[in-house]
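Hi support team,

I'm filing this because I wasn't sure whether my run with pyridoxal-5'-phosphate finished correctly. The job status page said complete, but I'd like someone to confirm that the output block is well-formed before I use it downstream. Pasting the exact inputs I used:
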Amino acid sequence: MDADGLRRLLARTAELAADHLEADLETPVSRPVAVTELVAALGGPLPVAPSDPLEVVEALARDAAPGLVRTNGGRYFGFVEGGVLPASLAADWLSSTYDQNPAFHVLSPTAAALELVCSGWLLDLLRLPPDASVGFTTGAQLANVAGLAAARGEVLRRVGWDVDADGLPGAPPVTVVVGEERHATIGRALRFLGLGERRVIVVPADDQGRMQPGPLRDAISDGPAIVCAQAGNVNTGASDPFRAICETAHEAGAWVHVDGAFGLWAAASPAHRHLVDGVDLADSWATDGHKWLNVPYDGGFVICADPEAHRRAMTLSASYLARADGGRDGTDWTPESSRRARVFATWAALRSLGRDGVGDLVARCCAHTHEFVRLLADDPEVTVLNEVVLNQALVRVAADDARTLAVAAEVQREGVVWLGTTVRRGVTSLRISVSDQATTDEDIEVAAAAVRRAIATTA
Ligand SMILES: Cc1ncc(COP(=O)(O)O)c(C=O)c1O
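And here is everything the job wrote out:
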């Protein structure tokens, strides 16, 4: 493709992207579409001959459209889906344009520098130890794997076992303690690490899902031990009492890993910081950029107070892999070798928002969640099931599972907003998460009106 053609292609792509973002309010958040229709439109036999790149992009934009869910927009309240900050979106395009690989410093001194800069900024913003190490992962799932790998290596090293060299067969048993309401990705991380999803000791949680420190004391026995705590319960938004957990765990010589996919960001808001009091006392943390920081997928961070334990668990070497003195080799801190330079989008998010902007984003989402609930709460059929402390709310209709599911289905069918459901402790509820910087006061009014309409329609 010649230079003019490339310029036309990129300009048209930018136009298609802007059209998509501008169409936000006129288009349903999601609509029913059969995957077979999408496959038929996008598929067929593998093309034999090459196609004009411009035609390829036009076809993608046209044929993908019916199956796109507007998770990036102010009216999506499902799962915990952050949106995309404008600067982050543009920076992400550049990272693909530059096609940098941050595995090794020599492959991209710029990516290495951005990772160093963002490590410092993230630790500052999240108020974690300034000399902790940071790895840039796909998301909290792999950040949990990396943090728990560092934990496993270090607690075994302290009793004279090198798990990286000798593996787990014959190793002293590692006690893993988890809260009753841990996220599913903790279980999967334990599976990957050979620690076993079922071999854990489960500490009961209180009514908001917070691990209880009293029973934790009894759960940790002598020997290598890891405690998995949580910032931001995926249903209630509640965080564990970290100060008590860390004191108890550290007294017993255990390592504390915190899964804070979204809840760790409470530390960035002065008004919400108390919710994660003591979280800085832990040994490792997993969090996401693609949730509350509103960077595009994908982007997560593993953070470790013990950089040597982190590096030992992740690093790799081979004779052809050049190391630069004093450089940062990103592969030392993540479970991946080659990967995209997702740090570009993180750098742009942090640079464009600054400390105050991130704090405002977190506080605004929390205030919007409160307002959403307030606009529903005077309906006699509505019960709010959780203490709304962060950006998560659980709302039940008519004290009835089937009716609550019917309301969610009606909201989703109408397509003005989207929210999902959950089952917590056997009780079904609507699950509201406000995580997008684009959500406005008006969006919250529109969303509450949509839920109230669905309650009336399903009566
Ligand atoms: C508490 C918690 N941990 C881990 C995850 C997994 O995050 P990711 O899907 O980004 O890997 C989530 C996602 O919702 C979460 O809420």
